[in-house]
Amino acid sequence: MATPLSPLTPRGIGLGDEVYSTLSQAILDGTFAPGERLRDVDLAESLGVSRTPVREALQRLERTGLVEVSPNRYTRVSIPDDNLVGDTEEFLAYTLATCLRLVVERGDDDTLQKAGALLDEVIDASRADDRAAVMQASAEFFRHIAVSTGNSVFLRVLRDSEVAIRRNLIDWQPSIACPIERSSRYEKLREAMLGREAERAETLTRELHGFS
């Protein structure tokens, strides 16, 4: 059965990475719906590649939890449930809280000032009660924080799990519903971060995501 994908146009990265990126995006945007079966031969034909990079990409997607494989039966897009969403939120909250603590403890002033400017964008979006804008601004803020840790393990784990996090939290809602209270918490986080109060910044980050 044909798939709704177009042949790949080389972008100067490894073919396996291109196939992985294409399939990831197709899952994220709903081209491949939860529960939909994926056949490597069909995907390879649509993308204009051999089955080898497709199989490699599917294996990577299985490791991130976006694809389920039952040997000799099926390979399909996984279906998120409440437990998976909750586990993803917990993983992200604690990982990012730890990353922020490291940056507050050892980052230079320029790094923290840039973080403060990015957090201002989160605060503005929160005051406007714009969920999509909060998500986008938060992603930029925490991307900066993760990179600024300089910790290769954190970066690798977050990079490998990024697509799964985005898919699992696609219907994310702020844990603090009131925009006034939520914005106030973000302002306290900014204050703690720029004041180099590492433990307080870590705690506030967890609390903003619903974890004490």
Can you put this structure into words, describing what you see?
This protein is mainly alpha-helical and 212 residues long. It folds into two domains: 63 residues, Arc Repressor Mutant, subunit A, CATH 1.10.10.10; 127 residues, Four Helix Bundle (Hemerythrin (Met), subunit A) (Up-down Bundle), CATH 1.20.120.530. It has nine helices and two strands, in the order H-H-H-E-E-H-H-H-H-H-H. A two-stranded antiparallel ribbon has the order 1-2. A hairpin with a 3-residue loop joins strand 1 and strand 2. Helix 1 packs across helix 3, helix 4 crosses helix 6 and helix 5 runs antiparallel to helix 8.
SSE diagram, text form:
Elements: H1 15-28, H2 40-47, H3 51-64, E1 67-70, E2 74-77, H4 82-106, H5 109-127, H6 131-149, H7 152-168, H8 179-194, H9 198-208
Antiparallel strand pairs: 1-2
Helix pairs in contact: 1-3, 2-3, 4-6, 4-9, 5-6, 5-8, 8-9
Pfam family, one: GntR
Keywords: DNA-binding, Transcription, Transcription regulation
InterPro entries: AsnC-type_HTH_dom, GntR_C, TF_FadR/GntR_C, Tscrpt_reg_HTH_GntR, WH-like_DNA-bd_sf, WH_DNA-bd_sf
List key phrases describing it.
212 residues, mainly alpha, Arc Repressor Mutant, subunit A, Four Helix Bundle (Hemerythrin (Met), subunit A), two-stranded antiparallel sheet, 9 helices, 2 strands, transcription regulation, Tscrpt_reg_HTH_GntR
Would you state the CATH class of the largest domain? Mainly Alpha
Assigned CATH superfamily of the largest domain:
GntR ligand-binding domain-like
Sum up the overall morphology in one term: elongated
Count of spatially separate domains: 2
Number of DSSP-assigned strands? 2
- Determine the strand fraction and express it as a percent band: under 5%
Using the CA coordinates, give the radius of gyration. 19 Å
Largest sheet: 2 strands, antiparallel
Unreliable runs: none
What does the average pLDDT come to? 90
Order of helices and strands: HHHEEHHHHHH
Can you name the CATH architecture of the largest domain?
Answer: Up-down Bundle
* Discrete helix count: 9
Strand arrangement, major sheet: 1-2
CA distance, first residue to last residue = 49 Å
Write down the CATH topology of the largest domain.
Four Helix Bundle (Hemerythrin (Met), subunit A)
In helices, the fraction of residues equals 55-70%
In terms of structural class, how would the helical and strand content be classed?
mainly alpha
